[in-house]
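Researcher: I'm preparing a figure for a lab meeting and need a structural model of a single chain. I don't have an experimental structure, so a prediction will have to do for now. The sequence is pasted below. Please return the structure as tokens so I can convert it later.
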Amino acid sequence: MSLTAEDLDVLHLGSGPSVMLVHGSVVKAERTWRHQLALAEHWSLCLPNRPGFGTSPALPRGDFELEAPLIAELLGEGAHLVGHSYGAVIALYAAALRPDAVRSLTISEPGCLRLAAGDPQVDAQIAGGEYLFQRASTFAPLEFLRAFRGGVGSTHDTPGALTGELLHGVRLLMRERPPWEADPPLDTLRTAAFPKLVISGGHSPVFEAVCDVLAARLGAERAVIEGRGHTIPATGPAYNARLQAFLAKCEQE
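Model: Understood. Here is the structure written out token by token.
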């Protein structure tokens, strides 16, 4: 199935410089970025729902390489690009596709774990993820979600039974292309003129290693925002303050 950016369900809020927020797996844009909606007081927010989320048509499976061109197209004449988790992987690819349209790039805990391959804890996490995804069809959705969230350190509440949008999101996750297969074009991104920021949650040696390697290879600023594990945007004011400070500095450059 072929999608274009016009097919996506996109929420636009606020006024000011444009900021695009790309969500990850399981939950849609408004849920992932619910604490960031307050930023619309000073920024024009663009919150696309990835294929399969909200009313966006689904792809046969979620795939960072197939979704990146859609996000790149939505950048329009230029925007600050922000991605979390799987959305951060997509944002890396999208930024490389249209670097001239990226005013800055902020990513938090992308799942491209192979960037830090060779670290024993990273290698073990990849092996565990491969085991889970290769056997996805043998798991009930609730079992799969609990295993997945436990592995990444998510602090989202998981109910005792899955219904509605959450059940739908887990079913999308179970057939999603694993993010550790990603090999984002970091050399292209490093030489791009826009500023970069890499954020981790201070909860996982695996994600700390990945984010350290990524920041070094991108020449990016590095930040740690603790308190909500992998679910970093849910720290709310702490995340918003760091993001706004970075964006404001980029606007002055």
